[in-house]
């Protein structure tokens, strides 16, 4: 077991953290949905039409460019709708459950790769470079599993994993047949595993220590021409359970958190459930507009009560849209209640950087030129020049992008830097667009 200590980064301590023990059962969701945008790199081509029956574990659609990659239904029921947007882009596939528990059976004796593809678990993995669903014709150098999430208000993956931890050895053993290298497992200091067969690395440090990309960069970085696969420990255990039971388990435990929630708690749910079923009776009734986020405040997706839980299906955050529309002196205020990760306000004198804060969705400014050097580097514990990489992406200078580490990064790695950025640049969008352009150019 290796110990890796990280100093760069920052733990954003928000109000709305889960303090109670136990897991609450969710209200039954009237519909469930799969959102294709959650599976980057997959272009959906429908296998089921509206009105057709689908069993849990049966494919709803496959990748237009590789029919072997499938995304499956989390419940048994009827395909109620295929929601489309501009240029007929599929935004969501909605399934209305029938409650009969019809579930597809899989053959656990089949090749692990085929089992991952057929069950839809393949689409829940990612590959570096490009941070996309892995290509089926490339054998990875290594496979990295992360066992914790360090994002603000993120759930403990130990709680989400629960008793399914016992399936990890079977998953690691199967995954090890898909690579000539190692299967690495990144763990926090307070979470140890029994013998899983993986190479365990203990990661100590502030967010983004839980990001699998940060773990890769500090264990065995990705170089040009190399491919690694990544997944979280919950997905790995789900694969192990499939190997031993021949059935896909689509149940999950979701952390419902944030200052906009009355009692933050872990809620037992099913992948793709509706936000209304998760948040029913849990929103603070103070007449302030709420921002519902599928995921955490740094990387999550803005949703509505009519929306659905997005992959990786384990976190919902609710905060206020704007606490105070007009503030006296604004950014120039000397109020000790104002929060900043820098020493811009007097709150740091009273330990404000480490106290729970109630932040809203207000941007506090607009996009401007990059004038503060070194901000990104303080928030990204990777051996890259983040600021220069962002500039190279904006200019689409392929040679510099390669030299500065484009193959190592994913948008989530820049999420904290985006929050801390004085220039208010949309770094995650910039990195995503850069990766997509790079893939189109190189592949």
Task: Explain the overall architecture.
The protein has three domains: 1-26 and 105-247 and 249-323, Ubiquitin-like (UB roll) (Roll); 31-101, OB fold (Dihydrolipoamide Acetyltransferase, E2P), CATH 2.40.50; 375-442, no CATH class. Helix content is 21%, strand content 21%. It contains eleven helices and 19 strands. With 443 residues, it is an alpha/beta fold. A hairpin with a 5-residue loop joins strand 8 (77-84) and strand 9 (90-97). The protein has helices at residues 112-119, 157-161, 168-176, 212-219, 233-245, 275-279, 375-379, 386-395, 398-403, 415-420, 427-442; strands spanning 2-5, 23-25, 32-34, 44-46, 53-54, 59-63, 66-72, 77-84, 90-97, 126-128, 142-146, 183-188, 199-204, 228-232, 251-257, 265-270, 290-294, 301-303, 315-320. Helix 3 packs across helix 5 (233-245). The model has no long low-confidence stretch (mean pLDDT 93). The protein has a six-stranded mixed sheet with strand order 1-13-12-11-14-10. A six-stranded mixed sheet has the order 2-16-15-19-17-18. Strands 3-9-8-5 form a four-stranded antiparallel sheet, with no helix packed on it. The longest helix has 16 residues, at 427-442.
Low-confidence stretches are none
Structural class by sheet pairing and helices: alpha/beta
Helix content: 10-25%
**Helical element count?**
11
């Amino acid at each position: 077991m290796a110990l890796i200590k990280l100093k760069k980064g920052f733990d954003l301590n928000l109000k709305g953290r889960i303090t109670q023990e136990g897991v609450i059962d969710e209200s039954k969701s009237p519909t469930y949905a799969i959102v294709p945008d959650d599976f980057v790199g997959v272009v959906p081509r429908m296998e089921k039409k509206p009105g057709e029956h689908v069993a849990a574990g049966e494919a709803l659609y496959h990748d237009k460019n590789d029919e072997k990659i499938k995304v499956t239904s989390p419940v048994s029921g009827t395909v109620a709708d295929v929601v489309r947007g501009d240029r007929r882009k599929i935004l969501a596939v909605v399934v209305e459950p029938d409650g009969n528990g019809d579930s597809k059976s899989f053959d656990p004796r089949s090749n692990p790769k085929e089992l991952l593809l057929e069950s839809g678990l393949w689409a829940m993995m990612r590959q570096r470079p490009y941070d996309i669903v892995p290509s089926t014709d490339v054998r990875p150098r290594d496979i990295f599993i992360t066992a914790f999430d360090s994002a603000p208000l993120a759930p403990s993956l130990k709680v989400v994993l629960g008793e399914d931890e016992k399936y990890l050895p079977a998953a690691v053993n199967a995954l090890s047949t898909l690579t000539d290298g190692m299967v690495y497992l990144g763990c926090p200091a307070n979470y140890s595993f029994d013998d899983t067969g993986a190479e365990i690395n203990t990661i100590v440090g502030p967010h983004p220590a839980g990001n699998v990309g940060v773990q890769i960069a500090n264990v065995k970085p990705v170089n040009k021409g190399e491919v690694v696969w990544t997944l979280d420990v919950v997905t790995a255990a789900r694969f192990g359970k499939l190997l031993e039971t021949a059935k896909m388990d689509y149940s999950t435990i979701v952390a419902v958190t944030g200052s906009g929630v009355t009692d933050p708690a872990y809620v037992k749910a099913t992948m793709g459930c509706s936000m209304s079923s998760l948040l029913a009776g849990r929103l603070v009734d103070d007449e302030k507009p709420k921002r519902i986020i599928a995921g955490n405040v740094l990387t999550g997706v803005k949703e509505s009560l009519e929306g659905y839980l997005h992959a990786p299906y384990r976190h919902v955050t609710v905060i206020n849209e704007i606490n105070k529309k007009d503030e006296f002196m604004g950014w120039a205020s000397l109020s000790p209640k104002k929060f900043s990760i820098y020493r811009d306000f007097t709150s740091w004198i009273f330990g404000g950087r480490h106290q729970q804060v109630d932040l809203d969705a207000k941007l506090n400014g607009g996009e401007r030129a990059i004038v503060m050097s070194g901000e990104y580097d303080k928030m990204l514990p990777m051996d890259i020049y983040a600021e220069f990489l962002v500039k190279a992406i904006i200019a689409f200078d392929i040679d510099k992008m390669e030299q500065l580490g484009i193959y190592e990064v994913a948008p989530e790695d820049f999420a904290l830097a985006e929050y801390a950025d004085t220039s208010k640049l949309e770094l995650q969008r910039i990195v995503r667009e850069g990766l997509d352009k790079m893939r189109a150019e190189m592949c």
